[in-house]
Specification:
This protein is mainly alpha-helical and 59 residues long. It has a domain at 25-59. Helices cover 64% and strands 0% of the residues. The protein is built from three helices and no strands.
């Protein structure tokens, strides 16, 4: 199914206004962290799970 230009613009506008993104850098001294994260099948889900667990511990 082809996406119309209007649908594409609407999707882009939604992402621009609603979706938040973060970038994380791993330096050579943190290679163990990078290797661990790389081994996770769902990296985004894994990070979100860690944040939710931390939020639960902190109340």
């Amino acid at each position: 199914m082809a996406v119309s230009d209007a649908q594409r613009r609407a999707s882009e506008r939604y992402r621009r206004e609603s979706v938040r993104q973060i970038t994380t850098r791993f330096y050579p001294a943190e290679a163990d962290l990078w290797e661990w994260l790389s081994a996770q099948p769902n990296k985004q889900g894994y990070v979100k799970q860690l944040i939710r667990e931390d939020m639960g511990r902190r109340g």
